[in-house]
Every structure is written in C-alpha cells, then in structure tokens.
Amino acid sequence: MTPAAEALRRDDDRELVRLAKSDDKEAFELLVRRHQSRVFAVAGGILRNKEDVEDIAQQVFVKAYFSLKRFDQRAAFSTWLYKITVNECWDLLRKRKVRPLLYESDLSEEQAQEYKGFGDKSVGSDVSDRMEARQRVENLLVDLDERDRLMLILKEVQGFSVEEIAEIMEINGNTVKVRLFRARRRITEKVKRREAGR
C-alpha cells in the first residue's frame, strides 16, 4: 500500500497534505477526490450555474495545488480549501457585478435533473415545480447581504459549524452567530409579510 493510500485509509488529511507537499501526486489526487463534492456544493450554493461551479471548482484545485507548499496546517485542509472556494466565487461575482439567479430556461431538462443539492429528487417530481421552489427560496435570500446569505448557505445547506464558517470567512464565531440569527429573522419576517398579504 502506498503512503498516500495508507493516509487515506486512516482518514488523515494532514498526512496527505504532507505527502502532497513533497510532490506526491497521488496524495493530492486523493485530497481532490475526498473534498471535490463539498467544493462543488459550496460553489453551487453561491453560484448555482453548473458551468460556473465546474470552472470555479477546477480553479480552486489548481490554486490549492500551487499554494499547497505555503499551507502551514494551522487550520484544517478542508477549511483552507473551502476558504479558497468562497473567495474564488466572490471574485467571479465581483467581476460580473451581478447577483446570480437561476432560471429554468438557463438549464436543459437533463442539467436540471443532474443539478445536486436541489429539492426532492424522488420519482415523479417535476422539474418545473423544483425550479419554482428554488426561485421562491432565491427570492427570500435576495434581500440578504451577500455575506449573510453565504453564511446561511454554509450553515443550513452545507452543514458547516459556526467555528468552520468563522474560520472560512475570517471573522469571530460570535459574529457568525449574530449574523445567522439576524438573517434567519429577516427571512422569517419576509415570509410572514407575504403570508399576511394573501
């Protein structure tokens, strides 16, 4: 068994990083395989356009590969990688200066069905119903500050802990808690106003 395979078996990112830093290509490939689905999920929660998500994920791993020697392992590799992901997504959005929205017309039916992290995929579920539900959620999130929206997605959709979000976003954990609380409250108030208007 190779050292990289042994580290993978032991679920040891630190050892994989150490091996990858010493030019063990297999170790880096194993790190990519281990973390790619979460990188895609984080990027997908921010960008939602499949092609952009794929491009950003590729950029993230290229950037991680070339920056790995400078990674000092004070933070977990996963936290460092997700921070790169978030920053790459924000860079793309800043370049475009638009808030991303996903419309059914942007996707082929096949793409809509393939898209991960989205609604119930049970047999018989209709793509247009799922797209409509996603648009309703997007309409609730659209008024949130970009950072609050991202924190909410990282916490509620991706399952990151408050401490991980604080590290990724380079802010205090208490600030994350307060901003999450306020973001949830704004969404709840918006839902109540909509329901009262019916």
SSE topology:
Layout: H1 3-9, H2 13-21, H3 25-46, H4 50-67, H5 77-96, H6 109-114, H7 127-141, H8 146-157, H9 162-169, H10 173-196
Helix pairs in contact: 1-2, 1-3, 2-3, 3-4, 3-5, 4-5, 5-9, 8-10, 9-10
Compact overview of the structure:
The protein is built from ten helices and no strands. It is mostly helical.
Q: Quote the beta fraction.
A: under 5%
Main sheet specs: none
Structural class: mainly alpha
**β-strand number:** 0
**CATH domain topology of the largest domain:** Rna Polymerase Sigma Factor, Chain: A
Describe, in plain words, how this protein is organized in 3D.
This protein is mainly alpha-helical and 198 residues long. The chain folds into two domains: 1-101, RNA polymerase sigma factor, region 2, helix turn helix motif (Rna Polymerase Sigma Factor, Chain: A); 142-198, Winged helix-like DNA-binding domain superfamily/Winged helix DNA-binding domain (Arc Repressor Mutant, subunit A), CATH 1.10.10. The protein is 71% helix and 0% strand. The radius of gyration is 19 Å and the shape is elongated.
Keywords summarizing the entry:
elongated; Arc Repressor Mutant, subunit A; 2 domains; 0% strand; 71% helix; mainly alpha; Rna Polymerase Sigma Factor, Chain: A; 10 helices; 198 residues
